[in-house]
Specification:
single chain, 208 residues, alpha+beta, 2 domains, 4-stranded antiparallel β-sheet, 3-stranded antiparallel β-sheet, flat
Length: 208
């Protein structure tokens, strides 16, 4: 073994430091991804998803002609690339990628338009970083929320949580609840349960 110096890159994640703390970003990876899908010259947008559009399976191709047309579009490749960005340094796109990945087997034009919008959002935020400050709050914090019956296809709720340590996100997730919540109270309880399980798992790492 030999010392190669301070880590600057790991699995596509850039690592930088200054007197305030440590920073993680994927600017290079995102730039390469935008070029791969011909979105490097697109106009940035402020949000990863259009809140006025409810994506559903009803938007999937309804004819063989539409299926052939969509077969030419690299939808699954795009989702795979976006998943890596969301899992490594992208809590802000986690919800959108989770939503779009539902349609991997039957994407329609509206779904692809939503993917391109997400690329446009990344175009404007690719230099954003996760910051872990030495002066940040050393106490472990976790935030959770849910959107009751938001899925247009099965009416299941979507939950999300993010875990914060030293001022930066260390864990995050967005997922569909396993059952249909019958009330907002039940919905919020299941979201809290999922986030508590994550907190206990991380706490176990600290104790070990």
């Amino acid at each position: 073994m030999k010392f190669l110096g301070t880590a600057k890159n790991c699995l596509g994640i850039q690592i930088s430091r200054d007197k305030d703390g440590i920073y993680l970003d994927q600017e290079k990876y995102i730039s390469e991804m935008l070029m791969k899908f011909n979105m490097d010259e697109s106009n940035p947008v402020a949000t990863p998803m259009d809140i006025n559009i409810k994506l559903s399976k009803e938007m999937s191709p309804k004819s063989s002609e539409e299926e052939k047309e969509m077969a030419k579009i690299p939808y699954q490749q795009a989702i795979g690339s976006l998943l890596f960005a969301a899992q490594c340094t992208g809590p802000d796109i986690c919800f959108t990628v989770n939503k779009l990945s539902k349609f991997n087997n039957c994407p329609g034009k509206e779904h692809w338009t939503a993917v391109k919008r997400l690329f446009r959002y990344l175009k404007g935020t690719k230099s954003a970083k996760l910051k872990f400050s030495r002066n940040g709050n050393p106490e472990f914090q976790i935030y959770s929320d849910s959107d009751w019956a938001s899925d247009c296809d099965d009416r299941r709720s979507v939950i999300g949580y993010v875990c914060i340590l030293q001022g930066g996100a260390v864990s995050w997730a967005t997922k569909h609840q396993p059952t249909v919540a019958l009330s907002t109270t039940e919905d919020e309880y299941m979201a809290l349960s999922a986030s508590t399980q994550e907190a206990m798992w991380i706490r176990g790492l600290e104790l070990n």
